[in-house]
Every structure is written in C-alpha cells, then in structure tokens.
C-alpha cells in the first residue's frame, strides 16, 4: 500500500514512530478499527501547519516585492451570501487581478481556519475565535417578510402576537430561530415564539419558501431585496425592528501580511459595505 506522496506505508509508520519517540508523546491513537489524532497530536499538527505557513508567507512576501500579486487565496463564506453576492464579487476581483486564484468554500459551519487551510472567512453573527484577526464590515439588517399570496390566504399580522397563528419558515441551523425578538419604536422589546410545518437549514431555501408562500419569517435584506423590489415579497410589521447581525472578516494572522490577501480583504470590505442592508457597525 502506498499513500498519495508516493511513500510506502511501512516508511510512514517508521518515521511516525521515530517522531513519537523523539517527542515523548503519542501523536496517534490506534485501535483495530481506526487511527485518530491524540490531543497532543492535534496540537502538534496545528502548530506545524502554522510554521509551514509562516515559511510560505516569507517566500511569498519576498516575491510580492518584485512582481504583481499572484497565487492562491482560500476564502470561506456563509453559503447564501456567497451564492447571492460574494461569487459575483470574486469575478470582479479576478478581473482586476487575473493572476490570483481564489478557492471559494461555501459553508455555514464554523470551521477551523488553520486546520482547513483557509486564509479569510466571511462570517455572519458573533465571532469568538480570539486567535484570528477580526475586521468588522457592518451590521446586516433583517426584516419580517411574507408573500402577497400567503397574506391573501392567511391575512396580514397587525402586531407581533399575531405571529402565533401564522406559518413561519424556521431556520433549523440557527440557534433561537423558534422565536423572534422585536424592538418597538418606543424602545420596548417583545419576544414571540413561532412555529411552522417547514424548517430549512439554508438561506436560499428560506428565500424560496417565502416567495412560494410557504410561510413568513425574518430575512436579511441582502437575501430578499430583489423580491421586495419586484413585489414578490412584502415587509411586515415595519413599525417594529429586528436585531441586526454582525458581518465580519476573520483573517488568519500569519496570512494577513501577504499582498494578495490584503488586496482581497480591502476589496471585500469596500464592496460588501455596498450590499443592501449592510450598514456601518
């Protein structure tokens, strides 16, 4: 058996055993069914990745000083925002910088940037990873929306309490989506439980459900602005407001100094702030 690097399994096993002996700790936990990293092995692997990326960064910064930025950037982005807007922005970025390759990873999971080899991640919501550089872009405005077809059958809610008798499209992958917190213009807040027969785990599925009249619910303005403009959706309870959601860039510190990464960061900050509903934080 040989692995993808063209090295035999026995050679890999011998080198690994020698490394474990030199370190004095087991890096892998071995059973008859599987092999997995120990806690020490996981930390060692992560630290080695950071060292290798620092070496790579040093070489790239030296090259960048003498030529136009080129090479690869790995960008992770929340899925719906990526499909609706970021993909188009990457096209525009690459038109300006044709020698830069962008690997765009669309996921709503909070991945480990270093472990996954990601340079920059675009995140909606609070961020807790203090090891990453944080660049706040703004706040994403949300609205309660429903289709004219739904409203013609079920009526229009006149106050938040009315939502208890309406079908809501609930986001199953968003904590607390079984309730909506409203703020009134006089400064009071109200939490309303909601439910429905359709639960989805993707913003584009929620967008389609709203437009098809399957229920009502909160949506980011950038997700539905075109449907509001053409009348396929309407804003409900506009005298109440929903809390905005932070939109931020997380940047691996060791990658922040690379010219092509800086170019992409500056470009995204400028362009994303122009999207519907994205205001300064």
Q: What does this entry show, briefly?
A:
This protein has eight helices and 16 strands. The longest helix has 26 residues, at 39-64.
Explain how this protein is built.
- With 281 residues, this protein is an alpha+beta fold.
- Helix content is 36%, strand content 26%.
- The chain contains 8 helices and 16 strands.
- The strands form 5 sheets. The protein has a 6-stranded mixed sheet with strand order 4-3-5-15-6-16, with helices on one face.
- α3 (79-96) packs across α8 (259-272).
- The chain starts with 8 loop residues before the first helix and ends with a strand.
- The model has no long low-confidence stretch (mean pLDDT 87).
Radius of gyration: 24 Å
Give the structural class.
alpha+beta
- The SSE order reads HEEHEHEHEEEHEEEEHEHEEEHE
Query: Strands of the biggest beta sheet: in what spatial order?
Result: 4-3-5-15-6-16
**Helical residues, percent:** 25-40%
Strand count, sense and barrel status of the largest sheet are:
6 strands, mixed
Question: What are the key terms here?
Answer:
three-stranded antiparallel beta sheet; 8 helices; six-stranded mixed beta sheet; single chain; 281 residues
Layout of secondary structure:
Blueprint: H1 9-23, E1 28-30, E2 35-37, H2 39-64, E3 71-77, H3 79-96, E4 100-106, H4 113-116, E5 120-124, E6 133-140, E7 142-146, H5 148-154, E8 169-171, E9 179-184, E10 189-193, E11 198-200, H6 203-211, E12 217-220, H7 221-229, E13 234-236, E14 240-242, E15 245-251, H8 259-272, E16 278-279
Parallel strand pairs: 3-4, 3-5, 8-11
Antiparallel strand pairs: 1-2, 5-15, 6-15, 6-16, 7-12, 7-13, 9-10, 9-14
């Amino acid at each position: 058996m040989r692995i993808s690097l063209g090295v035999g399994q026995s050679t890999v096993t011998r080198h690994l055993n020698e490394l474990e002996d030199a370190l004095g700790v087991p890096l892998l936990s071995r059973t008859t069914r599987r092999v997995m990293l120990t806690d020490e092995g996981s930390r060692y692997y992560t630290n080695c990745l950071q060292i290798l990326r620092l070496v790579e960064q040093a070489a790239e910064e030296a090259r960048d000083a003498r030529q136009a930025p080129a090479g690869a950037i790995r960008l992770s982005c929340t899925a719906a925002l990526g499909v609706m807007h970021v993909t188009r922005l990457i096209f525009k970025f690459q038109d300006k910088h044709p020698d830069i390759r962008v690997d765009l990873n669309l996921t709503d999971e909070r991945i480990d940037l270093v472990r996954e080899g990601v340079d920059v991640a675009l995140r909606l919501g609070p961020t807790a990873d203090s090891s990453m550089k944080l660049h706040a872009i703004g706040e994403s405005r949300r609205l309660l929306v429903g289709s004219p077809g739904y409203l013609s059958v079920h009526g229009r809610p006149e106050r938040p309490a009315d939502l208890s008798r309406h079908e809501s499209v609930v986001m199953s992958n968003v904590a607390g989506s079984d309730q909506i917190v409203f703020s009134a213009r006089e400064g009071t807040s109200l939490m309303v439980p909601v439910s429905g027969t359709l639960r989805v785990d993707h913003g584009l599925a929620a967008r389609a459900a709203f437009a098809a009249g399957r229920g009502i619910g909160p949506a980011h303005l950038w997700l539905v602005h075109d449907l509001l403009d053409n009348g396929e959706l309407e804003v409900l309870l506009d005298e109440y407001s929903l809390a905005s959601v932070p939109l931020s860039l997380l940047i691996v510190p060791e990658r922040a100094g690379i010219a092509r990464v800086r170019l992409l960061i500056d470009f995204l900050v400028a362009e994303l702030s122009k999207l519907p509903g994205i205001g300064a934080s």
